[in-house]
Amino acid sequence: MLKIRLARGGAKKRPYYYIVVADSHSPRDGKFLERVGSYNPMLPKDGATPRVTLKADRIAEWLGKGAQPTDRVARFISQSQDEALIGKVKWTQGNNPNKAQPGKKAQERAAERAQREADRAEAEAAAKVEAAEAAARAKEEAEAAAAAPAPVAEEAPAEEAPAAEAAAEEAPAAEEAPAEAAAEEEKTEG
Q1: In whole angstroms, what is the distance from residue 49 CA to residue 40 CA?
Q2: Sheet holding 34-39, edge to edge
């Protein structure tokens, strides 16, 4: 299939386009059949020299042979004031209202993410409910334990007192032992 399209030329950051007739399978800047115009986007829109130059008779001939213009070239041809091209190509601005919507895979990922968030929120809510139930059970057990009479244990404090006295007696002895060990070391050194 033949296309009338743009082929880029010019330097880096200084574009210049040739309008060419080429096979649709050839590369953008590759092999073409004929050069039928040019487009210089660096020129001002309302300047003295035109931004777009077209060979109207050659374009009309290629259109008659079945060449299809790309969207940008169709815009140039439809805006042309040349008698040979008037009415040959009708260009209408495209309208794609679904362009901003994400693709299928992105929608699937968003749905999975939303499902994970819902599951996590549900798990957190279940954990909070479980924690509240455990706290309620612990409170009931504490109240039940407080309501039941506690056995009287008079012997336990008596047993603890002798143990404390024994620990107090051992502490001064432990303090004296290092002092005695230091005195013995001085005797052996001297």
Answers
A1: 10
A2: 52-54, 34-39, 14-23, 2-11, 68-69
User: Helix, strand, or coil here: 151?
Assistant: coil
Q: Residue 76 corresponds to which amino acid?
A: F
Beta strands in the chain (DSSP E): 2-11, 14-23, 34-39, 52-54, 68-69
* pLDDT tens digits, 121-166: 999 999 999 999 988 888 888 888 887 765 555 555 555 555 555 5
- Specify whether the CB–CB gap between 55 and 37 falls below 8 A: yes
pTM for this model (two decimals): 0.51
> Rounded distance, CA 153 to CA 24, Å?
101
Q: Which residue has the tokens 């059949």?
A: 33
Closest CA to 40 of 52, 28, 55, 54: 52
Q: What 3-state class would DSSP assign to 10? A: strand
CA gap 91, 74 in Å, rounded? 6
Joined together, the tokens standing for residue 27 give: 């590369």
CB atoms within 10 A of CB 19: 27
Contact 77, 85 (CB under 8 A): yes
φ, ψ for residue 86 (rounded to 5)? -65, 125
